[in-house]
Amino acid sequence: MPKKIERRQSSIHGNGVFATAAIAKGERVVRYKGEVRKHADVDADYAGHDETGHTFLFSLNDEWVIDANRDGNVARWINHGCAPNCEAIQEENAKGKKHKDKVYIHALRDIAAGEELSYNYGIVIDEPYTAALKKLWECRCGSAKCTGTMLQPKARKKAAKKPAKAK
User: Fold this and answer.
1) What is the pLDDT of residue 55?
2) 3-state secondary structure of 103
């Protein structure tokens, strides 16, 4: 099967991944590869590095991360987009071994040859979203639907129900 994607310079940010042939809606485009590591180990290795808003880390679950800085493939160069043409789909290991889960990039719609691939990174961080953090995680996708940041809205906590007043 001929390769349908390649890395090139992107107008969005640095490198990007582009279709070299038409890709059909629903087609599995590429697996996101890298060394599977524990969050704690990744946090320790990258602690103290300046935050750049640039990452090759893909969280699989609460314990495991794909670190595409190590043994990563072309999928690490796919940029974030607010109106993406692809999505990341996690495939869980049939035996429940969470460190063996995989991530594949699939086409959300038909993609023409020459078109840059993008997916929503879905980044949610624990800290409050300050203007500085939004700038650090700035989105440059250029879409009419661009939110200006790769940070996604945090899940809202449900308000506790007030007890009914006694009469």
Assistant:
1) 75
2) strand
